[in-house]
Amino acid sequence: MASEKVVTLTDGNFRSTVLEADKPVLVDFWAAWCGPCKMIAPVIDELANDFDGKAIIGKVNVDDNRQTASEYGIMSIPTLLLFKNGQVVDKAVGFKAKADLAKLINSHL
Questions:
Q1: Residue 81: inside a domain, yes or no?
Q2: What one-character-per-residue DSSP string does 6-61 give?
Q3: Domain Thioredoxin: where (predicted)?
Q4: Residue 73 reports pLDDT greater than 90
Q5: Number of domains, the chain
Q6: Residue 95 · residue 35 · CB < 8 Å
Q7: Hey, which residues are catalytic here?
Q8: Is there a domain that residue 51 lies in?
């Protein structure tokens, strides 16, 4: 079950939700057909709950939002980009453990 705390990001809301955010934003670029994306989805949900109020956790479906995926050069999924003050400050490609992603987020809080 997806967490209601995970923000659905689109080409239309990416700028206002991610680039203009006042806290770090972890963005999961994913697709419905991607096996590793399905594996990491529960981790993303847990992170959204764990970091509620401290960081924003969002997901971009690359099939539905090609402009944003292209703009950030997403070639493999899942790709997770961490934004702070509108800039990419960290990146992880492929399935990552929850502890690794939590450490990545914490290092930018």
A1: yes
A2: SEEE-TTTHIIIIIT-SS-EEEEEE-TT-HHHHHHHHHHHHHHHHTTTT-EEEEEE
A3: 1-109
A4: yes
A5: 1
A6: no
A7: 34, 37
A8: yes
Identify which of 62, 45, 52, 56 has the alpha carbon closest to the alpha carbon of residue 10: 62
Q: In the prediction, which pLDDT does 89 show? A: 98
C-alpha angle 99-27-42 in degrees, rounded to nearest 5:
50
Strand-pair partners of 56: 25
Share of the chain above pLDDT 70, in %: 98
- d(CA 65, CA 72) in angstroms, rounded, equals 12
20-31 residue pLDDT tens: 999 999 999 999
What are the pLDDT digits (tens) for 11-54? Answer: 999 999 999 999 999 999 999 999 999 999 999 999 999 999 99
**Residue 87 pLDDT greater than 60, yes or no:** yes
